[in-house]
Amino acid sequence: MALDRDILPANVKPKNYDLSIYNLELGGQFSYHGTVTVDIEINQALTEITLNAYQLQIHSAELFTEHTKTESSIEASDVTYDEKARRATLHFGTEVPTAPHGKLTINFAGTINDTMAGFYRSKYRPVTSPAKSVPVIDGSYYMFSTQFESSDARRVFPCWDEPNLKATFDVTIELPEDQIALSNMPEKSSTRSTKKAGYKEVKFERTPVMSTYLLAWAVGDFECVEGVTKREYREEGRLPVRVWTTRGLKEQGRWALGNACQIVDYFSEIFHLEYPLPKVDLLAVHEFSHGAMENWGLITYRTTAVLFDEVTSDQKFRRRVAYVVAHELAHQWFGNLVTMDWWNELWLNEGFATWVGWFALDHLYPDWSTWANFITDGTQVAFGLDSLRNSHPIEVPVRDALEVDQIFDHISYLKGSSVIRMLAAHLGVETFLKGVSDYLKAHTYGNATTNDLWVALAKASGKDVSQFMDAWIRKIGFPVVTVAEEPGQIGVEQSRFLLTGDVKAEEDQTTWWIPLELSTGDQAASTEASALTSKEETIRNVNETFYKFNKNQTGFYRTNYPPARLAKLGQAADQLSIEDRIGLIGDAAALAKSGHGTTAAVLAFLDGFRAERHPLVWAQLTDSLSEIRSIFSADDDHLAHALRAFTLRLVSPAAEKVGWEFTAQEDFLTGQLRANLLSTAGACGHEAIVAEAQRRFEAYRSGDQSAVHPSLRRTIFDIAVREGGEEAYERVRQEYLSTTSIDGKEAALYSLGRVQTPELAKKYLEFLFSPAVATQDVHSGGSALAANGKTRQIQWEWIKEHWDMIRERLGGNMVVLDRFVRLTLRKFADEGARRDIEAFFEGKDNKGYDRTLGVVADTIKGNASYRERDREIVREWLAANGYL
Q1: DSSP string, 198-230
Q2: Catalytic: which of 328, 345, 403, 735?
Q3: Where along the chain is the active site annotated (predicted)?
Q4: ∠ CA(602), CA(722), CA(625), 5° rounding?
Q5: Which of 87-91, 322-326, 568-572, 879-883 comes out lowest in average pLDDT?
Q6: Residues 583, 490: contact at Cβ < 8 Å?
Q7: Is there a contact between 114 and 121 (Cβ–Cβ < 8 Å)?
Q8: pLDDT digits (tens, 9 = 90+) for 84-118
Q9: CB burial class (10 A; 0-12, 13-18, 19+) of residue 438?
Q10: How does pLDDT run across 213-260, given as a tens digit for each residue?
Q11: Are 203 and 187 contacting, i.e. CB atoms less than 8 angstroms apart?
């Protein structure tokens, strides 16, 4: 047994599962029975077989073997369970010899739960009359689907639930005749059930060799929109691509369908490896703990990640859907065809799929400034978590598969993808993709490690990739490059960046390979592709008129310039790319927070961006300003007022210019700019914008649906709730309950968190944890209340008082509970709150969110030290500039 991981005994290896799910009780009991026959190889003589099983009842198990041409069978005499390890052991009472071929048949029963893990049920309100057999309870109808990643296949059938124990699967499902069953592979046959009247038995084709976590099926009142790829594949020709929904929603799948058809072809081309399955299905699931899941051939999605209505959807979901479709399709190769060997290398799946998802988006929509968007939504977010002591390396030790859920985080996804972007830029994208293709071909249908990827990339590039990448993958944190100017030369020095600014010598032992990418002219000028490979270095003959490190922000590091140089770069914004402008703003704000700079310098720097035009630069500007306001405004009304005044002076001209009206001629990013600027100005009290938002809200509630453009729904609802008290709160709550818009419910939940009184905050929390709000969405309201300085502490007091209820409601799926804890507690900025949170959770069973509690504590500590250090500096600057 491997010393670094707790895995199943190696005496048995699965080859094929023949799985039958039947006797589904779809109303009330929500139970099922199953039989699985596993073709196995017995490598060592044994008296027992241990495999994964959780919350299952194993009724019987029989082992058939062939030894020296003699067939025999033996029934298990006993079954014991290890609930903590989620395993079952079948005891046979006599020794079974080694055998190259054996069959293990297990009869079992399980539950179709409501925790969004394993085989589970989802509530929904149909938009048209559903099939007669669809169960309905208290007005809610149900569909059924699976979610097995990371280790929940064992909740559904006894199996060897580890990523490198791959096998093939034959799946058969018994279901009502008027519903549809989907699985990884196409339907093989459908026959009337001989066991249950009104039911049919659907068999699916055998899957390729794959990991258990990628197996999937769904049962429901489904319909689809269908397309085909342009490219022809093997004997199948053009592949069928379908987006499935519950009845009445299929037309909202057309945007995802169009993207999916193109992306399957595009990835087949750039990987030089054809999509390996005979079909591509995408399924909208009404209750979903994640954003989506890459099950091979049957990809499942949260509704807001795959459905888009051209008339009623916020335009920002156009990009979200296109990206998530690309991300999950990337996994069909990188993760499914070739799978990480163990969960410590989760980043191999998620980091690459994130990068290549953005890569596909840039290919399909070049006018969306995709890589600039990646800097704001990807790299800057990754910096936030990785600047904490409680971060973790990209490749993190995972002893128990049950620990892995907590590393489905910004490090695995966003730092992983940022580091891949850095490497691809250094090697050249074509060379990088050639190495990826070689890696995929070398390990097709198998498992691989990070080192296997490095070997392929090294061969393609002729460079020692492992030598300069290992520190980025296996060490915690990232560097800040500090620049010192001297006559005729500049010095650069790298050190670990911590948000708290108090790096200890023992924490600063890593020397990263850092691509400096030094620009010494305008955007057309050449860039020197040198690298910093020591703690410090001197660079001579640099153009002192203009220079900038980390061109286009491809490197995953912060740059700390002397104040005068930062000011010059701000004045030379026209010589900088969009990515560079975003990076400078993000770096300046983060360095002030850590103490490398000051907030006064940041405010002065940001003040120079009033003429900025690009929507994504504005997105970074407003994000940075929002963080500053959150830190310094919570308990100081004078500072709060002054920071709002500063923000208004900065954004008002641009907000007034962009206006309220959408035109057919404007591009996608202009619409996003409008929503951002109007929201920011409205939150800071711009009188005309607040009045117009309230006017539109009243018109909308009076029946004029055109008064609120879907892309301004959040903006208008936010302002209405903030300014309108209980009446507006009730109106938006009713909007949540009545809207049929897929993303409209999400918008209403966030906006309800803008309430301004303790009474309404508590009222909202009661509603948030009522049956009216799906468990998957509770974090949306909690996050909004945490971002609201008027309700942050009220929510925390309520959480403490109702923790047992929260634990019971959300704890059935630790991903959901972990997310709620993180999003509701991270915004505090005082040591008293940190100590109170630590004291509350001390002594509790915090498994499943213990890592998050460490992240929360570190975040609050950084916020608190920042506020304490810079509060008077901020006050002085605001006073000196007429805001106080």
Answers
A1: TEEEEEEPPPPSB-GGG--EEEESEEEEEEEEE
A2: 328
A3: 328 (proton acceptor)
A4: 5
A5: 568-572
A6: no
A7: yes
A8: 999 999 999 999 999 999 999 999 999 999 999 99
A9: middle
A10: 999 999 999 999 999 999 999 888 999 999 999 999 999 999 999 999
A11: yes
Q: How many CB atoms lie within 10 A of CB 129?
A: 10
In 3D, which of 405, 259, 382 has the Cα closest to residue 329? 259
Describe the crossing of helices 254-270 and 346-364 by its angle, rounded to 10 degrees: 110
Cβ partners under 8 Å of residue 461, min gap 6? 427, 428, 431, 432, 435
Lookup: tokens for 252: 């909202």
pLDDT in tens, 594-608: 999 999 999 999 999
226 is catalytic: no
Architecture of the domain made up of 339-477: Orthogonal Bundle (1.10)
Q: Using one digit for the tens of pLDDT, what is the confidence trace for 554-569? A: 999 999 999 999 999 9
- At 352 the three-state DSSP class reads helix
Instruction: Read off the pLDDT band of 1 (50, 70, 90).
Output: very low
Give all strands of the β-sheet with 292-293 in edge-to-edge order. 222-233, 237-246, 280-285, 298-302, 292-293
Bind-site residues:
327, 331, 350
Region 169-187: mean pLDDT is 98
Which of 244, 221, 23, 29 lies closest to 134 in space, CA to CA? 221
Q: In three state form, how does the secondary structure of 276-319 look?
A: CCCCEEEEEECCCCCCEECCCCEEEEEHHHCCCCCCCCCCHHHH
- Per-residue HEC secondary structure of 772-838 comes to CCCHHHHHHHHHHHHHCCCCHHHHHHHHHHCHHHHHHHHCCCHHHHHHHHHHHHCCCCCHHHHHHHH
Spatial contact of 758 and 794, defined as CB atoms under 8 Å apart: yes
CATH 3.30.160.20 fits 1-219, yes or no: no
Reading the block at residue 736, the tokens are 């949540």
Q: What is the pLDDT of residue 524?
A: 41
Sign (positive or negative) of CA dihedral 411, 1, 154, 211: positive
Whether 355 and 326 have beta carbons less than 8 Å apart is answered as: no
With a CB cutoff of 8 Å and minimum separation 6, the contacts of 179 are: 131, 133, 134, 219, 220, 221, 222
CA-based radius of gyration for the chain: 28
CA 568/CA 746 separation, integer angstroms: 42
Closest CA to 615 of 565, 562, 666: 666
SS (H, E, C) 641-701: HHHHHHHHHHHHHHHHHHCCCCCCCCCHHHHHHHHHHHHHHHHCCCHHHHHHHHHHHHHHH
Are 576 and 522 in contact by the 8 Å Cβ rule? The answer is: no
Domain locations along the chain: 1-219, 221-333, 339-477
Calpha distance 696→263 (Å, rounded): 39
User: Are 1-219 and 339-477 in the same CATH fold?
Assistant: no
Task: Identify the CATH class of 221-333.
Answer: mainly alpha
* Global pTM value: 0.96
pLDDT recorded at residue 527: 52
* Average predicted confidence (pLDDT) for the chain: 95
- Give the three-class secondary structure for 424: helix
The DSSP call for residue 113 is B
Location of structure tokens 């067939």: 71
**What is residue 495's three-state secondary structure?**
strand
Instruction: Name the binding residues for Zn(2+).
Output: 327, 331, 350
Q: What is the pLDDT of residues 332-350, one digit of tens each?
A: 999 999 999 999 999 999 9
Whole-number Å distance between alpha carbons of 562 and 539: 16
CA-CA-CA-CA torsion for 817, 823, 825, 827, nearest 10 degrees?
Answer: 180
Other CB atoms within 10 Å distance of the CB of residue 679: 22
In angstroms, how far is CA 567 from the centroid of its own chain?
36
What single letter denotes the amino acid at residue 424? A
Rounding to the nearest 10 degrees, give the CA dihedral for residues 5, 9, 13, 16: -80
